[in-house]
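Researcher: I'm preparing a figure for a lab meeting and need a structural model of a single chain. I don't have an experimental structure, so a prediction will have to do for now. The sequence is pasted below. Please return the structure as tokens so I can convert it later.
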Amino acid sequence: MLTSISQIIEKAKQVPKQTLVVAAAEDNEVLAAVSEGVSLGIVDAILVGDEERIKEIAQGEGYDISQCRIINEQDKIKAARKSVEMVSQGEASLVMKGLIGTADILRAVLDKEIGLRTGRVLSHVAVLEIQGYDKLFLLTDGAMNIAPDLSQKAQIVQNAVSVAHALGIDTPKVAPLAAVELVNPDMQATLDAANLSKMADRGQIKGCIIDGPLALDNAVSLEAAEHKGIVSPVAGNADILLVPDIEAGNVLYKSIVYFANAKTAGLIAGAKAPVVLTSRSDTHEAKLNSIALGVLVAANR
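Model: Understood. Here is the structure written out token by token.
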């Protein structure tokens, strides 16, 4: 089981090398991450975008992209479609968002003709290394699904479980988060948490253990759980934190990053291949971490 971001990068060096295609690759931080990933031997890379601008950025910043294949496509929408199509046709095993809007690349991913549809919900999975904990946390979904219902939450969990398995967490413990630990008919998050727990018990959600509802303290702190008298296989030892909606997930993720200085990686799961989709504000280190995570997920498929 991998317990740190650095271990993710080291493991990515050991699995069969994957080919990454970047849509609209003319982005400084993206090129920094991709060039480092190539030099570390994590990926082979195909850069789709404005070739002149890509080379200008690389030369100006000193990024070595000599081993990268460049496909000149100045139209960002066409660059996204070309990148996704290459993954769909087996020319690459994962796709990364460059200097293009999230909606535009996801539109290509979901295209009925050249896209990466599976029929499942797409969801964002963040992997977090937080000082003071000897494990990685997976947080989902703070970036894509606004207010998922029970069926969507089940699929979001299953997507996160597939990422956990790629990290060597054989039976991840899932905590559906809520404000309280008891089922309250007036709080939909608690009802969904209880139903998800039962669905896992009945084998409707596979490869994990789910127990909830759990408040955040009881999900990650054994001391807090014991203090409240909570007896649970998940309480105090959660691997996956399932948030009730995008606001809770976004606030929790950014709080961990900016207040706790967490190291991060993230991708979109639920498609035929990993989609490395990072924020414009993410550092190139976070983008490199996300590439490495995508490589492990692609290799594990």
